[in-house]
TrEMBL record:
One Pfam family per UniProt: Acetyltransf_1
This enzyme's EC code(s): 2.3.1.87
Pathway assigned in UniProt: Aromatic compound metabolism; melatonin biosynthesis; melatonin from serotonin: step 1/2
Coiled-coil features, chain-numbered ranges: none
Keyword Transmembrane helix among record annotations: no
Record-stated family: Belongs to the acetyltransferase family. AANAT subfamily.
Function: Controls the night/day rhythm of melatonin production in the pineal gland. Catalyzes the N-acetylation of serotonin into N-acetylserotonin, the penultimate step in the synthesis of melatonin.
Reactions catalysed according to its record: a 2-arylethylamine + acetyl-CoA = an N-acetyl-2-arylethylamine + CoA + H(+)
Protein name: Serotonin N-acetyltransferase
Residues in N-acetyltransferase domain copies: 35-196
Entries under InterPro entries matching the protein: Acyl_CoA_acyltransferase, GNAT_dom, SNAT-like
GO CC, one annotated term: cytoplasm
GO biological process: circadian rhythm; melatonin biosynthetic process; response to light stimulus
Length: 207
């Protein structure tokens, strides 16, 4: 199955929500070459899974994606992923896929549906030594900016535990009710975000 070409995202003027620190590239321009945002490839899968496993297993005992699933999505839809690299080292990432139904189902955990118009965010994780620095916030804003510029993608969807609902609301997500997906004893809230504003921002900031 063919996919879009992998490309690095050129720095552009982003207006982050209030209270979210700017990325190092915005604060100190001389460090910009050391900070790269780009779509991930299957070759990045091992590094992605190492960060994911450390971030999630210690908290919930489960990873959103196993290593094979990480490779699966980075092969089928790399354009729906985004990694933040500092001096060549992966420090944070998001992996997504397309979904073609109004609400998430158990099948959405492992499927990529090319005809869909919703970017399903499977996982956002930050390396332990780079947490509490605002990197997750900056990466999520850039990701929404990135996928909002793809004509096929109209909205973003995700599921999260209740304590994280306020975090995602800062980026335009709104809860639509309990998610149909249950993982062990964990339950989730499903959240949706229209990407129309992000698409407009991308058009206005492109040269």
């Amino acid at each position: 199955m063919s996919t879009l070409s992998i490309h690095c995202l050129k720095p552009s003027a982003l207006r982050l929500p209030s209270g979210i620190p700017g990325s190092p590239g915005r604060q100190r321009r001389h460090t910009l070459p050391a900070n790269e945002f780009r779509c991930l490839t299957p070759e990045d899968a091992a590094g992605v899974f190492e960060i994911e496993r450390e971030a999630f297993v210690s908290v919930s005992g489960n990873c959103p994606l196993n290593l094979d699933e990480v490779r699966h999505f980075l092969t089928l839809c790399p354009e729906l992923s985004l990694g933040w690299f500092v001096e060549g080292r992966l420090v944070a990432f998001i992996i997504g896929s397309l979904w073609d139904e109004e609400r998430l189902t158990q099948a959405s955990l492992t499927l990529h549906r090319p005809g869909g118009h919703a970017a399903h965010l499977h996982v956002l994780a930050v390396h332990r030594t780079f947490r509490r620095q605002g990197k997750g916030s900056v990466l999520l804003w850039r990701y929404l900016h990135h996928v909002g510029g793809q004509l096929a993608v109209h909205r973003a969807v995700l599921m999260c535990e209740d304590p994280l609902v306020p975090f995602y609301q800062r980026f335009g997500f709104h809860p639509v009710g309990p998610c149909a997906i249950v993982v062990g004893s964990l339950t989730f809230t499903e959240m949706h975000c229209s990407l129309q504003g992000h698409a407009a921002l991308r058009r206005n900031s492109d040269p």
